[in-house]
Amino acid sequence: MRFKAEIDVMPLDALLDPQGKAVTGSMETIGLGSIDGVRVGRHVRLFVEANSAQDAESKVEEACKKILANQIMESYSYSIEEA
Amino acid sequence: MRFKAEIDVMPLDALLDPQGKAVTGSMETIGLGSIDGVRVGRHVRLFVEANSAQDAESKVEEACKKILANQIMESYSYSIEEA
CATH no. for residue A44? Predict the structure, then answer.
């Protein structure tokens, strides 16, 4: 079976996010001062061949831990559905 | 009212995604060859002060168009909820 995973990798809340801060500043500049608290991370979409949803989840979990996220600075979350 | 928006900005399907391609290669290297079609974009979380959900949506839409996404190369999608 083929599954699609949508993964968000975000900087940990405890850490500064200079990119997000810069974007918050730009919002103000273009008249969107009502927007704040911007944080910028990565979104990863991928497909995985697996025997079951559980199997797909364990593969995605491994991919997040080993490649996609740096757990010292980032947290990740994902959703998986049959593709 | 305060709303939280979760925004995904992804490279258009018609375009190459070298970063995604590199990640797909790395998956193979670490024994996750069952993962393919990786595409890497950005995930943005932000908060917006607005009078209604509709108002919040129009502000997020404007932020996506003007700052967060380059519509020549990227598509965006978002979800908004009360924070």
Answer: 3.30.1280.10
Give pTM, 2 decimals: 0.94
Cβ-defined contact of A43 to B45 (cutoff 8 Å): no
Residues of B in contact with A27 (CB under 8 A): 63, 67
Task: State mean pLDDT over A4-30.
Answer: 97
ipTM of the complex: 0.93
Provide the 8-state DSSP code for A71: T
**How many domains, chain A?**
1
Tell me the sheet residues that pair with A11: A74
Q: Which domain holds residue B15?
A: 2-82
CA-based nearest distance B52→chain A, Å: 13
A-side interface with B, Cβ within 8 Å? 6, 8-10, 20, 23-24, 26-27, 30, 32, 34-50, 59-60, 62-63, 66-68
* pLDDT tier at A63, thresholds 50, 70, 90: very high
DSSP-derived secondary structure for B5-20:
EEEEEEE-TTS--HHH
A31: left (phi over 0), alpha (psi -120 to 50) or beta: left
B6-25 confidence digits (pLDDT tens): 999 999 999 999 999 999 99
